[in-house]
Amino acid sequence: MKITLCLAxxxxxxxxxxxxxxxxxxxxxxxxxxxxxxxxxESFSLFGEPLQRPDLxxxxxxxxxxxxVETLEFYYANPDSEAALVWLGRRMAYLGRYREAIGIFTRxxxxxxxxxxxxxxxxxxxxxxxxxxxxLRDLHRASFLAASVPDHIEPDGQPNAMNVPRSTSHSNxxxxxxxxxxxxxxxxxAERSFRHALRYSTNxxxxxxxxxxxxxxxxxxxxxxxxxxxxEPIHADMEIFENFExxxxxxxxxxxxxxxxxEEEVEAASISAATLGYxxxxxxxxxxxxxxxxxxxxxxxxxxxxxxxGHIAAEVDLHRKSKExxxxxxxxxx
Length: 334
Prior knowledge:
By secondary structure, the protein is an all-alpha fold. It contains 16 helices and two strands. It has three domains: 148 residues, Alpha Horseshoe (Serine Threonine Protein Phosphatase 5, Tetratricopeptide repeat), CATH 1.25.40.10; 60 residues, no CATH class; 62 residues. The chain has a two-stranded antiparallel ribbon. The N terminus is likely disordered.
């Protein structure tokens, strides 16, 4: 089923649900999806270029559309449900419709202003569309609200091959908070957030993901000795279900895999090239090869999906480099 056709059918579906189920509603009538803008780019890059909705492979699009429709049915049967709003927004985002996902999360936050779950997911998607200050606002509040709540496994929307969720509500909040600080080049605050995330990284997948970004934040802050300590728990035989690229990068940082091997893997990769490529670009940067680093960042923003964290981070670095070069020219009177 084409997503354009499917979403065109959603408003009549919504209207019929409202008509049929109105007596069962609580104080929060269902969201009408036509109220959320459907046209135009999803966002703009830091260079002002439009970021269009990604084209998904037909089989992926069909599967995710079916999942979205199932979630929509659950939502209309439970319009007062926080969980239904969380999942409706998540399923919308998996379709690459990030603005609409943010609209759904915002609707939910209007009903549940103290929902750390909704704030965590909206914060994630603010990162996707390059609104880092808004992401930090949501993720700071989410971490405050979640502090008094026991941690729990967060179900995956796109499960790994083992179908075993690896992240938790608390690890995700602090991980994304650290990422937002990193993208603002506030490496000290990024370190603090990633160290909080490590407390909840109780399996090898989350340990690798969090350690990778913590290592990079420390290296970018010039704290090589502290970064080396982050690598101490890392070894080749870790139980990895999903974060294979982070694991391999950490092994490269330890000297167990060469940068040349990782560079070959970046050339051969597709979606994972953003993750591997940005880690490698950073490695070049803090090992005295900035030209190679920025050339690789250019390649990443040309060839990898714009919603990938590695792509976003490469874009941030290139944009800052461009701004710094412009400021230097102005200062020199050129």
